[in-house]
Amino acid sequence: MVDRGANPLSLPDDWPDHPDPILALNRMGSFDWDLDAGVMQMDAQAHEIFDLRPEEYDDRPESLGSRVPSGEALRLDTVVSRALKDGSENYGAYFRVRRRDGSLRWTHTQGYIRRDGSGRPRRIIGIVRDATQELGDSEARREQAAQEDLRRRQTNVVQLTTAALAHARTVQDVIDVLKDTHGLTHLGATSLVMGLVEAGRIRLIAEGPEGSFIPGTDVTRIDEPYPMSEAVRTLSPCFIESPEDFAERYPGLWQGLTGLNITSAAYLPLIVQARPIGAMGLLYSDRRGFSAEERNILVALGSSISQSLQRAMFYEQEMDLAQGLQQAMLPRTIPSVSGADLAVRYRAASIGGSLGRDIGGDWYDLIPLPGGRVGAVIGDVQGHDTHAAAVMGQLRIVLRAYAAEGHPPATVMARASAFLDELDTDRSATCLYAEADLSTGVLQVVRAGHLDPLVRRTDGSCRRVRVPGGLPLGLSAEFGQLDYPVGTMELDPGDTLLLCTDGLVELPGADLDDGMETLAALIAVGPDDVRDLADRLIDVAEERGGGDDVALLLLRRRVLDSPRPGGRLKQRVAPGDPQALAEARHMIRATAGTWGARDRADEIELVADEMITNVLMHTEGSAVLTLRVLTEGSERRVRVEVEDSSSALPRRREAGESGVSGRGLFLIDTLTDVWGVEARGGGKCVWSEFVVAKASAPA
């Protein structure tokens, strides 16, 4: 009475997802037995087979003792135990159940054993059914066994096809699963055709046998005399029993199929929520006609395929939306920058096929600034969804606006953080902003919880540049006003700066520092051209996969054909912004060292500070600081200019013995080699020049 010939199924771990239509079609109940927890859940059909009311069963196998006689239970336990121990994938057995009225009836069960990687059984998924009539007499049993075998094979077709379609993400994936040789073998068909309903027409998306395309059928009207149109129009399957039936009902279509040995066909409507989304045709060359059981199986198959196709269509629609949003939020073009070669790249993540999660908040930007400067931005908004992309777009725009207004880097970052905090979103963001003067190679860098930049030198070496950083953007409400220290670095002609998001660095199970070292080594041996190098880095990210976006920006300072006469840096200092004043002092000192004026850095900083302070104290506007290096013959000078909007000229005052002001012009006159005042539109410019040690002019 033991059935050991059941075919093992390769079912997904969450099977059955929605088995009721298939099992009810075959008058079966289902159970799911968690061996670790000792819990066996059964559906309503299984309760009916055991003649149990729902409240009489508590999901424990022991509770079936009132319905399964002890002898039957012992025999069934022996079958199950042997299958669990000998590594079997399935088992089957007949046993008797005692009904509520005391009578016995035969029941059949079939279980599929799921094991973990070590082979330990963890779960049994199975079916139970009433087998009384099947075992009524020997002839009936043989006939019933044959029918059951056929039914099992047909049910397996639906189950195996559904299991394979569970991994299909796109419409093409669905087609590939069904048209695969293995898939067609399960379906029992020679070939398959499929069409989708679009604007009152049916567009063919999968042809039948190779070379069987019939001109004029790629797009057809629903009211045309084709079997696929009829299935969509009537919402009912269209079964063609024989070649004669085919030729009589659809002569135009049959003429194109006469050489393909088609003997029958089944055209199934693909219906979701009572609405046709398309139709599918299965063409056979080894059968004529369809039994009632076969028709029912094909209808169930069409329902399963419809659900998979709808999921795929939703996925593609979501992907189109996500990609469109991502493209809209990222810069459409990157401006050309005099003195630099640029390359930017973006790679979307692919996370487990989840809809809408192939998009994230990574972004890059390049911002032209006055005076030939440029701002380079890289950032990453928390999350992988359309909301992250929307937040990213807003953050990119405001950061660009703050930079274009002339704010110093630290102020740009602080204001962007405050904006994100006020945006009423739960997202934070990491960001790095580098403001570069390509004439001098001086970069001012601020970092908000983001990765450090990397620089590849002209000798091929590549290193991580440690930059002081602050907290990620958007945390102002939690931590108060955030400070972002400014780091200064120098980019020599031929050097390449890399800014990237952590998707390019993070490796599964690896430390972030190790990832940075790996990336630096890859850049060191990469192509010299920044576009080729960017492509190479993205290719590596593609090969590695991973669940995060990748954004990167490469900036290579060009090697000039001839030396330039000097460089220039500019920064605005607004009233009431002590941070901007501190940053200006830092820029002055760092730039003086870069330009070979380290011996006079204190004097330059002190004079510039006095000139800026005078503007902030005696005018109502901002001070605009400009540093220049001038070369005349063998003499090099550093020129400091401070512009304001007031036309009133500076005048010398007596400070007195205890005065705290009035010594500004005396200080400027004492420390500088030459100074003066120039009219500038509606304001003026006070300038000072310092002769520095003779040296070759900077590039």
Overview of this protein structure:
A hairpin with a 2-residue loop joins strand 25 and strand 26. Strands 1-4-5-6-2-3 form a six-stranded antiparallel beta sheet. A six-stranded antiparallel beta sheet has the order 9-8-7-12-11-10, sandwiched between helices. The C terminus is likely disordered. The chain has 699 residues and is of the alpha+beta class. The radius of gyration is 38 Å and the shape is elongated. The chain has 18 helices and 28 strands.
Topology:
Blueprint: E1 2-3, H1 20-25, E2 29-34, E3 39-42, H2 44-49, H3 70-85, E4 90-98, E5 104-115, E6 121-130, H4 138-165, H5 171-179, H6 181-187, E7 191-198, E8 201-206, E9 219-221, H7 227-234, E10 238-240, H8 243-249, H9 251-255, E11 264-272, E12 275-284, H10 292-329, E13 340-347, E14 361-368, E15 373-381, H11 386-404, H12 409-422, E16 429-437, E17 442-448, E18 454-456, E19 462-464, E20 469-470, H13 476-479, E21 487-490, E22 496-500, H14 512-524, H15 530-544, E23 550-557, E24 568-573, H16 578-594, H17 601-618, E25 623-632, E26 635-644, H18 664-671, E27 674-680, E28 683-692
Parallel strand pairs: 17-20
Antiparallel strand pairs: 1-4, 2-3, 2-6, 4-5, 5-6, 7-8, 7-12, 8-9, 10-11, 11-12, 13-23, 14-15, 15-16, 16-17, 17-21, 18-19, 18-22, 22-23, 24-25, 25-26, 26-28, 27-28
